[in-house]
Amino acid sequence: MAIAYLLLSAIWFSQYMRFWEDILQLQHCIAAVIGLGLFEMILWYLDYSNFNKTGMRPVVTTAWVVTVGAIKKTLSRLLILSVSMGYGVVRPTLGGLTSKVLLIGATYFVASELLDITEHVGTINYVSGRARLFLGLPDAFLDAFLILWIFTSLSKTLEQLQAKRISVKLDIYRKFSNALAVAVIASVAWITYEIYFKATDPFNERWQSAWIITAFWDILSFALLCVICYLWAPSQSSQRYAYSEDVGEEFDDEEAQSLTRGQSNGYVSLVKQEQKNGNAAISDEEDESEEDKRE
């Protein structure tokens, strides 16, 4: 995973520096998540490597690694939520939702931090299974709440883009929603397998293959991050995805309609004026012919 994040960082930051002048605020957030992910995986590698060589796992080092991981997980979820709300694309800011997003982020960080410390540091200082279950429930509840909020916000964003008929952004968000749907289906399937795995191995006899349980979530989050990087990659046309473009397109449409209406009104008035002039000329000719007859 460290090598995977290193490759993603090299690709992303090369484009990031190349098109620096066209970078959006959303792309700054993506860069921060990639950097934190790389830092987290390097720390995990060093922690496990030291554990493998010395047979000892310091509590302070492990707690520090877990904290960085909790920060990265929190920012990743907030990034997906902000993208689903249309931050920087449909709306310039989150507005009144900023405080709510920050509140759910802080709550999730605390729950994730406590759960991860219990799972990893708890292997050093034993923690009972009831305590782990008690700390795991808030984390699972917040994950479910975030998923519901993400899909609700994504549905509203798709409706706004469809109403404004912005095909480029609508296509991007449809691809993003499909990727999220696949990720959710894969998550549910893996949770089912995880329950089966733990239920059929109550004494942890298959500990050598248990690493795949947690590895799946790292791979899934990395794959979803790659999808976001692909859809919102830095380029010369990055600004066409910005919020200001929506105003410009609406203004252009309104301006075109007003010009069309002005032209049509002018054309009708011109036709009416010509008809009036023609009728006046005909009446003058009739008057002159009647005077000639009288003479």
UniProtKB/TrEMBL annotation:
Compositional bias (Acidic residues):
283-295
What keywords are annotated for this sequence in UniProt?
Answer: Membrane, Signal, Transmembrane, Transmembrane helix
One of the record's GO cellular component terms: membrane
The UniProt entry, under Pfam families, shows: GOST_TM (PF06814)
**What sequence ranges are listed for the domain GOST seven transmembrane?**
1-239
Where in or outside the cell it occurs: the entry states:
Membrane
Topology with regard to the membrane? Multi-pass membrane protein
* PANTHER family xref list: GH17801P (PTHR21229:SF1), LUNG SEVEN TRANSMEMBRANE RECEPTOR (PTHR21229)
**The name this protein goes by in its record:** GOST seven transmembrane domain-containing protein
